[in-house]
Amino acid sequence: MLRTHLRRRLLVIGALPAVAGIALLVAYPVVRTVYLSLTSWDGASAPKFIGTTNFRDITGQGGDLWATVLRTIRFSLVATIGVMVIGTLLAAALSAGIPGARFFRVVWFLPMVVPVSVSGVYWVNAFQPTTGLSNYLLGKVGLGTTHAWLADPHAALYVTSFVWVWISTGFAMIIMLGAMNGVPVEIYEAAEMDGCSVLRRFFSITLPVVRPTLATVALLEIIFTFNGFTLIWAMTQGGPGTSTQILPVEVYRQAFINGNYGAASAQAVVGGVLLLLVSVVMTRFIRSSSGSGRARAGLFRRRANRSALAAGQGIT
Amino acid sequence: MTSESDCAVSGTAPATRTHSWRRRIVRRGLAATAVGLVLASVLAACGTKSSSSGGTVTLHVQTLTGPQAQDMQVMAQAYEASHPNVKIQIDALADVASKMPNVAVLNGSNPPDVGFVQYDGGAYAAELANNKLTPLTDIWQSNNLAKHYGPSVTKQYTVNGSQYAVLWDTVYIAPMYYNVDAFAKAGITVTNHRITLPQFYDAVSKLKANGYQGLGVGGNTSYHLGHLVDMLLQTAATPAQYDSLLTNWQGSVPATVKYTDPAFVNTLQTLKDFQSNGVFQSGMLSQDYTQAEALFAAGKLGMFMGGTWTPSELNGSLKVPFKYDYILPPTLNPAQTTKFEGVATDAFVLPLKSKHPTQAKDFLKFVGSAQGQTAVAKGGLLPIFADLPASDLTTIGPVVSSILQDVKTNGSAGLWDSLVPNTIGQPFGVPKYQALLSGQSSVQQVASEFQTELDKLRAG
Questions:
Q1: Which domain holds residue B364?
Q2: What does pLDDT average to over chain A?
Q3: Cβ(B75)–Cβ(B376) below 8 Å
Q4: Does residue B379 lie in a domain region?
Q5: Confidence at residue A30, expressed as pLDDT on a 0 to 100 scale
Q6: Looking at residues B159-184, what average pLDDT do you find?
Q7: Which residues of A touch B99 (CB under 8 A)?
Q8: Closest chain B residue to A260 measured between Cα atoms?
Q9: Pick the residue with more confidence: A64 or A24?
Q10: Can you point out the beta strands (E) in B54-190?
Q11: Distance (Å, rounded) from C-alpha A304 to C-alpha A282?
Q12: Residue B396 maps to a domain
């Protein structure tokens, strides 16, 4: 009895540093942000409680929160889909053992290592009319050299999404490669014996089996892009106009340029709640796909076993 | 007995070992704590911004990066020469960092001894509103700064009879520096540094025909498009209307001019026409001030819009290989002469928590003296003292000297988007101009948005 009590106390004492750390580094900033969202604060004076005024202001007429949220979702979707598609294809190529796989694994991961602000500055120059690399290449194939990609409000968001894909694909590729390398070889062998083509094997075995990992990487990418301040700030600072002004850029502007920390906190709270919702939905999807992925792997494993038994090799 | 003794021995020995082990742990713990404390003290001492050692005081002074930082080097050397016990440590800030983000730095536990603020950057107003600055009225009185700065600047910086800032330099905007060789090649002649709107369009097309792009502007920079709008607005409005726009955000001042009136609407329309007529360099909205300036220095642009600080960049790090001069942006009303717009925004303040307030005040006294202002000129910037002898201004170069002469002859105007509050000033305006130029908003929409913000301001 005494021992159990002591053990419990020890457990509580042992957990205290972690709890204190979470309280200090996670709970306090979150609670403080929510509190600030209910105040008027210029960063220097004492915050003045004003209830939900900030939320009414940012969502009401004149506040462009929803336009910013939609823009953020657009940026996030384009970038995440790009990263996932290209990252998965590159991982599949490496997993299939293309010539020079080791070299390409390093090269394709390199953009992830470069500081995002440096990448941003490089690509800003690369997309300049006449002098930029992109226009030089387009000029070489007769498509003109004067495209002002980042000055065009219809193109700027897609250009920044492209740069995000360039930066982040290596990350997705490495994670997906790990998942693909974990798919048992006998499943592929069985499928091959059943006469499945390379494409069929990719879509019917690889993708279903790595779907939980795919979903996890997608969730991470959505979170990263929702918070993709550094790249946007380095490339366009949200412009031209508001065409690349995603939520964290708008939060920064409100807080550090307009000195309206209350409204900035309210925007951050709305963004946080949205991300939380996305995370909950995605986590449920990951759980369900994890089950179906395992089931599909089991199906192929059973087929493999049957094929092996039929061949008299007795694989268990 | 033996066994008891053995037991006793065997029973005490581990206990003794345990005690000794514990003592060792405690001793090591104490030693580690002591080392930790010493290290923490050393680190804390290193991290402290203001430090004193061996009778020498290090003053941390904020400044802007770029020409201002170079200028401050000259100022620091001049001050240190006459104050051997003081070392000036320059903390250079990017333009954005010197604005609202600087509030947290100035109010933090370890602020600079001398803070840098821009009048229109928001930080100065926030610090003043929250009584976080030390009054510098005694320096103003001892150095007779009101006389040197002139009545409008004195009024601008006086709050309830006290002053909280010592000014550094003055800035005149927005000369359009032009490549003299390019203009000669294109057959463009300039009279008296002024140009009309038709002449301006004609000059741009002649430049293009000779392989140059038109006017370089950093559309992506937080202030540059604002300066152009300022200059166009100056002649789109009558002098009385322009003066009204500078003050009518205050509820107590009669609102005789609206942003939806022809003066502001015509200004926006002209800006839009510039874009439609290919006046700007291509990709202007995606380029910042330095990129546009680099294109000019590389000889690709015929003109580049800058300020009185620009020649120190063109002659300094950029080393332009051609001769340049300036014209002012075109007048929108031929009956009016475009004037330079002067602004005294760069100022030093003394945070309440400065570690060395006495030494910091002495440094500020130096900045606000003839000797300090001569150092400003030596560094390449334009001193705020308008009454320095010409012999002290030889280092500012012929182009800036010519600008000063122009100001003396034609007078100057206030910089509208720096003198009105941020909610209708540069931080609000520049994204609106970008939206206008990129087709996201119409002239009428932008004008209405300005008027809505003005109405909100007036309503308090």
A1: 52-170+344-388
A2: 89
A3: yes
A4: yes
A5: 95
A6: 95
A7: 256-257
A8: B100
A9: A24
A10: 56-64, 86-93, 115-118, 158-159, 162-163, 166-167, 171-179
A11: 32
A12: no
Return the ∠ at Cα A28 (arms to A22 and A32), rounded to 5°: 160
Q: Are residues B118 and B179 in the same domain?
A: no
A27 at interface of B, judged by CB pairs closer than 8 A: no
The tokens for B272 are 């839009």
Tokens 């930082």 — which residue? Answer: B69
| pLDDT for the residue numbered B14 | 42
Q: What is the DSSP letter of B85?
A: T
**What confidence score (pLDDT) does residue A156 get?**
95
If we measure between CA atoms, which residue out of B163, B64, B119, B189 comes closest to residue B415?
B119
CA quadruple A253, A111, B218, B449: dihedral sign: negative
Chain A residues close to B107, C-beta within 8 Å: 44
Q: Is residue B244 less than 8 Å (CB to CB) from chain A? A: no
User: Which CATH number fits the domain that encloses residue A267?
Assistant: 1.10.3720.10
Number of domains composing chain B: 2
Residue B343 has pLDDT above 90, yes or no: no
Residue B39 lies in a domain: no
Whether a cis peptide bond, with omega within 30° of 0, leads into B174 is yes
Q: Within the 109-128 window of chain A, which residues sit less than 8 Å (CB to CB) from chain B?
A: 124, 127-128
Q: Write out pLDDT tens, residues A169-203.
A: 999 999 999 999 998 888 888 888 888 888 899 99
Is the CB of B117 inside 8 Å of chain A's CB atoms?
no
The interaxial angle of helices A261-310 and A65-95, nearest 10 deg, is 30
Confidence of residue A2 (pLDDT cuts 50, 70, 90): low
Asked if A42's CB is within 8 angstroms of B441's CB, the reply is no
Tokens of B368: 């606000």
ipTM field: 0.77
Residue of A nearest to B292 (CA): A128
* CB < 8 Å from A in window 5-34 of B: none
Q: Determine the residue type at A5.
A: H
The tens digit of pLDDT for each residue in A12-58 reads 999 999 999 999 999 999 999 999 999 999 888 889 999 999 999 99
Helices vs strands, H then E, count in chain A = 14, 2
The pLDDT, as a whole number, for residue B317 is: 84
Domain enclosing residue A91, as ranges: 66-309
- A257/B62 Cα distance (integer angstroms): 19
pLDDT for A210-232, tens place per residue? 999 999 999 999 999 999 999 99
In this structure, what CATH number is given to the domain that contains residue B292? 3.40.190.10
B435/A240 Cβ within 8 A:
yes
Residues B369 and B226 in one domain: no
The rounded distance, in Å, linking the Cα atoms of B246 and B343 is 13
What does the longest C-alpha to C-alpha distance in chain A come to?
84
The total number of structural domains in chain A stands at 1
